[in-house]
User: Which sequence fits this backbone?
């Protein structure tokens, strides 16, 4: 009889039978190890959660009262003789790759990751393993990122230009990850930074966790319009086109996402400016990250899995496409807003689980 | 080329009309006059000549990008634009320093026709190496000849009008017809008197506005009365379903222009004798249709001959055309567009009365009616008349430029419709890139679903997102870019006409199919049948 693999793909998530735990399960289980706090990876309803220290407050804010154990990168937790340790994934603050080892066999689950150091979260670190379970959200060769310093030069000069033209500046990005990355790279000599409530709640959770972020102000109807116009407002994708946003008129609105690399996708979102900024690895980043693990087998969970798997096999990897429910954060951001960002709220999470 | 690449980028970076006009003006103000004319040609749909064929461009681009051909093709499906795909796939170029102007590039491109394939390839590869990603994108657009920029011609004209102090209708007229940016100069374009007028140049078409904005909201006779006032101020004609055309006779020469500004003189030899017999300085506006036994034939009959390079005797016999004229824009060499509809009509009637070939030079009959109620009743006979509905023209109207509200209205008949099941989906292009937006629909034939129509439009962006989400999770099979989807979603499909077809599995072909609405309320079992559809054939 063939040996049962250490990790397997089930209808509840990635499962370790030896250790009796799941990684990023999407249905309620007893024991869940969580790569990061985005809604498509950290679902509500598990009895026990294990995650990185820096995911703690965001998880508690998003999921409410949960039984949560947190660890540092590199620290080992044993479950039924299986060793679990977390390594930086460079995706968002607190994001981790999960290394699972048993009797010399090593598996790594990437969760979501990017290879560029964004200066905000702990940079991605390749982990040697036999089996690597990777995302490939941007696994097509048309996705090639520029260094973020170039992108933020564009962002800051756009902001400065808007101030000079007397219009407000609204920049849109995901509330966990993109929002903080934007915040930490803005040129604060231009003006103040205002935040949408959803984003400020996440910022507050991170600050409770000891993360030091640039000063922000939660925007309310009391903020004088003239002042707001000199600053920049960070808003989540769900706020696009809402009356909340229209109140800032006249404004210019910029969208930060890897999808902005394609002209059609940019036009579809009708943003004034599209900034190609992603928290996922680009084509070259994915291939170099997979290569660096030295893995014997690689499994692709979400993104352009079919094409990317085929290509990896052609260049000599043993690659396999697997079906999961990941990728609803950014990969499917075209889904109605209430199904994605809305899940950040407690209500939304319950409705899905 | 840097300025032209920047123009594209800047136009992409704003959704506001005023800013777009400003961007266009900035461009005009900073480039040489020859570049202005090339840009104008490109932005008004005058495609550059395709010197290198698309397959060669793809092949050579794939060689540079160092990826397998299948991955290049899949990338193209993700991006939805060939020029952009090639630009994105090439290695980034950080020290692109070419100072060649748009005119230089187009000049080089045109000179390639005298070169060998090897020389063309070398030129192309060297050119790509000189350009950055954005420049490559617009350069590839020049190569592939697909120039849809998301800027309407009227915006370009507006920017030009601001700069030149000429009015928009004059400029619109001066850029009509068959000019070449190599020979038509900016000076000629903007001089005060249009002395350099080309005898083939058509006038801008006046287009009617739909009286009902959507097919769901039907207008009643009362609505018409309150919107248009007294019925006596209007003339009504059938709305013919053919090819809108402008026919010119000047200096002993004849020209036939289609609305897409294609010179189509040679496509319609049947019209030449009566045109040649017209007095010099005559311009007619009308519809070209196929006729049989004095009756117009459905559009699909005409369609079979439009695409043909050579008009065989057989085609000319099966689908003979005639003109239904409905306006006269120039008479005795004089532009009469500012005369009233009624005045122009009587000139047209005089012209038509003298023709020796009235079965070819026809005139669009006026519909007699005394009230909107009566007209509403007459409109119900549209299908029997092989018409799409009714045209309303204010008797005092001048002949205007472009699609204008007010004096010309089209009052189309309600579309036919059936409820159908989506069975295939394919990704769209342009702003619908990487989204499943192009669907194939089927109706029941016994317990089988038979595909009968493709439709691309009719859903809102939010609905498209939901369908896309469904397609990605309910794919049964993939055939290249096409996905077979679990039959489940039901849509109401509207169309203007239906005809028998031997080329389609279903045995029928629809005219202008589009999605009217998503029938969330209908399970797939309740979709229509092929028999329901065939009953609409009416024969």
Assistant:
């Amino acid at each position: 009889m063939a040996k049962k693999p250490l990790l397997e793909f089930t209808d509840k998530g990635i499962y370790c039978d030896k250790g009796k735990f799941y990684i990023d399960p999407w249905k309620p289980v007893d024991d869940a190890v969580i790569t990061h706090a985005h809604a498509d990876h950290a679902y509500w309803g598990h009895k026990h959660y294990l995650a990185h220290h820096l995911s703690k407050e965001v998880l508690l804010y998003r999921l409410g009262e949960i039984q949560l154990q947190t660890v540092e990168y590199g620290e080992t937790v044993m479950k039924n003789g299986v060793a679990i340790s977390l390594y930086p994934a460079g995706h968002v603050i607190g994001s981790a790759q999960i290394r699972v080892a048993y009797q010399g066999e090593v598996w790594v689950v990437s969760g979501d990751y990017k290879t560029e150091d964004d200066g905000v979260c702990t940079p991605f670190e390749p982990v040697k393993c036999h089996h690597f379970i990777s995302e490939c959200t941007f696994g097509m060769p048309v996705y090639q990122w520029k260094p973020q310093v170039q992108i933020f030069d564009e962002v800051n000069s756009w902001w400065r230009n808007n101030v000079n033209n007397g219009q407000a500046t609204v920049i849109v990005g995901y509330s966990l990850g993109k929002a903080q990355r934007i915040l930490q790279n803005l040129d604060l000599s231009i003006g103040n930074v205002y935040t949408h409530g959803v984003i400020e709640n996440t910022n507050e959770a991170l600050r409770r966790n000891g993360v030091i972020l640039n000063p922000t102000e939660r925007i309310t109807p009391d903020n004088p319009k003239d002042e707001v116009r000199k600053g920049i407002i960070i808003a989540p994708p769900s706020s696009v086109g809402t009356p909340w946003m229209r109140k800032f008129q006249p404004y210019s609105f910029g969208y930060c996402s890897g999808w902005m690399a394609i002209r059609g996708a940019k036009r579809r979102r009708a943003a004034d400016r599209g900034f190609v900024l992603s928290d996922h690895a680009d084509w070259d980043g994915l291939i170099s990250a997979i290569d660096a693990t030295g893995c014997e087998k690689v499994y692709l969970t979400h993104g352009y899995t079919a094409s990317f798997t085929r290509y990896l096999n052609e260049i000599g990897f043993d690659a396999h496409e697997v079906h999961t429910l990941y990728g609803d954060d950014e990969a499917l951001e075209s889904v109605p807003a209430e199904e994605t960002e809305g899940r950040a709220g407690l209500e939304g999470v319950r409705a899905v689980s | 080329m840097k300025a032209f690449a920047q123009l594209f980028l800047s136009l992409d970076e704003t959704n506001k009309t005023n800013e777009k006009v400003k961007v266009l003006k900035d461009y005009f103000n900073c480039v040489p006059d020859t570049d202005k004319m090339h840009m104008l040609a490109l932005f008004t749909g005058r495609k550059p000549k395709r010197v290198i064929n698309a397959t060669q461009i793809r092949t050579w681009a794939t060689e540079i990008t160092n990826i397998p051909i299948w991955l290049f093709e899949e990338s193209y499906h993700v991006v939805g634009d060939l020029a952009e795909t090639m630009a994105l796939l090439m290695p980034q170029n950080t020290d692109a320093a070419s100072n060649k102007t748009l005119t230089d590039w187009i000049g080089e491109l045109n000179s390639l026709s005298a070169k060998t394939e090897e020389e063309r390839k070398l030129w192309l590869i060297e050119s790509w190496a000189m350009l950055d990603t954005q420049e490559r994108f617009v350069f590839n657009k020049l190569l592939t000849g697909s120039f849809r920029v998301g800027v309407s011609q009227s915006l370009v004209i507006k920017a030009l009008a601001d700069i030149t102090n000429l009015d928009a209708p004059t400029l619109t007229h001066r850029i009509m017809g068959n000019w070449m940016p190599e020979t038509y100069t900016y000076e000629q374009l903007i001089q005060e008197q249009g002395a350099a007028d080309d005898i083939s140049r058509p006038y801008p078409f006046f287009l009617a506005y739909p009286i009902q904005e959507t097919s769901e909201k039907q207008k009643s006779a009362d609505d018409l009365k309150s919107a248009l006032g007294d019925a006596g101020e209007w003339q009504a004609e059938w709305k013919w379903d053919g090819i809108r055309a402008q026919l010119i006779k000047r200096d002993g020469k004849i020209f036939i222009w289609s609305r897409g500004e294609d010179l189509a003189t040679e496509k319609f030899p049947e019209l030449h004798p009566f045109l040649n017999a017209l007095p010099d300085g005559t311009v007619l506006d009308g519809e070209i249709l196929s006729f049989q036994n004095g009756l117009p034939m459905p559009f699909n009959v005409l369609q079979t001959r439009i695409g043909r390079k050579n008009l065989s005797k057989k085609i000319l016999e099966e689908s003979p055309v005639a003109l239904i004229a409905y306006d006269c824009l120039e008479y005795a060499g004089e532009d009469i567009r500012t005369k009233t509809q009624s005045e122009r009509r009587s000139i047209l009637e005089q012209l038509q009365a003298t023709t020796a070939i009235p079965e070819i030079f026809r005139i669009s009959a006026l519909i007699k009616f005394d009230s909107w109620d009566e007209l509403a009743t007459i409109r119900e006979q549209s299908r029997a008349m092989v018409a799409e509905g009714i045209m309303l023209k204010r008797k005092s109207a001048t002949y205007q430029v472009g699609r204008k509200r007010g004096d010309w209205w089209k009052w189309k008949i309600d579309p036919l419709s059936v409820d159908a099941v989506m069975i295939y989906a394919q990704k769209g292009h342009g702003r619908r890139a990487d989204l499943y937006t192009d669907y194939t629909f089927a109706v029941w034939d016994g317990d089988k679903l038979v595909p009968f129509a493709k439709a691309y439009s009719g859903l809102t962006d939010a609905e498209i997102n939901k369908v896309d989400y469904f397609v990605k999770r309910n794919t049964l099979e993939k055939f290249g870019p096409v996905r077979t989807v679990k039959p489940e979603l039901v849509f109401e499909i509207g169309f203007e006409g239906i005809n028998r077809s031997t080329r389609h599995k279903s045995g029928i072909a629809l005219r202008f199919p589009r999605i009217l609405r998503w029938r969330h309320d209908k399970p797939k079992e309740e979709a229509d049948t092929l028999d329901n559809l065939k009953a609409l054939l009416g024969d």
Observations:
- Chain A has two domains: 8-143+279-352, 148-275.
- Chain A touches chain B through 26 residues (CB under 8 Å).
